[in-house]
Amino acid sequence: MPCELPDGIQLVYTDDRSRRHAIALDEARTVDFGPTRPFREPPASLAQRNFPGWWWSVTTRSHVVYESWLERHHIIKANRDARVTGIAGQPFALIHLLWLGRLIGDLSRPLGNGTILAASADPLEAT
After folding, report:
1. What is the per-residue burial (b if ≥16 Cβ within 10 Å, else e) of 109-119?
2. Rounded CA separation 104/109 (Å)
3. pLDDT tens over the chain, length 127 residues
4. Quick check: is 3 in a domain?
5. Which of 20, 29, 42, 78 lies 20 to 30 Å (CA to CA) from residue 14?
6. Is residue 126 in a domain?
């Protein structure tokens, strides 16, 4: 479901050479998140209760990172949707000067009509 966001939000992503780029949110349509690297790798420890990993995507013909089985389920579902033209895991962070943290997108799925679906189940992360 679309939501209203305040002005001044920046989108930060990591390119395929591990360089970080910050752009205005309005410019996000120009970025191909397919070849980008995950903004952050999911943490792993013996005591954690989620199950991060990498899932082979038929759509992208590469592995897509996920932090939970719910995210993995969305990757599998996106692979079966003919409208989806790409899938990226942990593709970017949204940053705003008034927020005391950042919001990291879990999955990004561009559709053939130019629309990009992005989802995050996490709260703001302290910076």
Report:
1. bbeeeeebbbe
2. 15
3. 556 667 778 888 888 898 999 998 888 888 888 788 888 777 777 777 778 889 999 998 999 988 888 889 989 998 999 888 888 888 888 887 665 555 555 555 555 555 555 655 554 444 4
4. no
5. 78
6. no
